[in-house]
Every structure is written in structure tokens, then in C-alpha cells.
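Dear colleagues,

As part of the handover before I leave the project, I'm documenting each prediction I ran so the next person doesn't have to rerun anything. This entry is a single chain, and its sequence is reproduced below.
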Amino acid sequence: MLRILPFLLVLALWIYAFIDCLNTPEEKVRGLPKVVWVLIILFLGEVLVGPIAWLVAGKVRDGATAHRGSTPSEWHRNHRTTAPTAPDNDPAFLARLAEENKRDEALLKDWEADLRRREEELRRQERDGRDGRDGQDRGNG
């Protein structure tokens, strides 16, 4: 296992540097074009020259967190843009909810009116049908 460990460490550093280079925006790459850095990392990865060169000289590092000594999570905690709000405290959500309720109530009233109209129509048809049958029965008898 100890014989494989140096090989695995070199491989891990090589993969990390390669992925880091690919994910770095072009404007944060220093010295050479990004494509050249990728090639340096790929071809000089076995001897660690490429990955170490990339980590030391290839990428512009954000110095803002390093100068203050804070970790990225501390920085994010201190620089929240907005405080999270619960839905029942969010005025936009409540307004949207009230608007949806109004639309739903209007739709329900339309459905109820349509149902009443159909029921009245059925009652009228039943009355007309009964009156027509009663007249026929009397005329035949």
C-alpha cells in the first residue's frame, strides 16, 4: 500500500489541478491562455511541474478572505444579501395568495351560477315533459 500512496497523491493533485483549471473563468487565469495551462497540466502532470505551476502561478486567487483570515463559510454568513423570510411573512407571497383566492372565488361563483342554471333547465324540462305526457294520457282515455 505504501508503494501506491505516492502515485495516488500525484494523481489526485494532477486531477485537482486539471479540474480547477477547467472550472476557472478565463479572466482569472494569469500569465498564459487557459488552453496552454491545460496542456501544461496534462503533459507535465506526472512530474508534478504542471499542477504545481498552475496552483502557484496560473490562477488569480481571491485575497479578500485571506487577508481577513476568515473561511469562505464565515464570509458568506457575514455577507448575506437578504434575510430569509418565511412565506407567511413575505408580502409578495401573501399578495399573490390573495390574488389567487379572488380568482378561485370568482371561478367558484361562475360554477355555482352555471349549476343553478342547469338545475333550473332540468326542472323546466321535467315539468314540460310531465305536462306533455299528462295531456297525451288524458286524450287517449
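The first helix runs from residue 5 to 23. The mean pLDDT is 81.

All the best with the project,
I.
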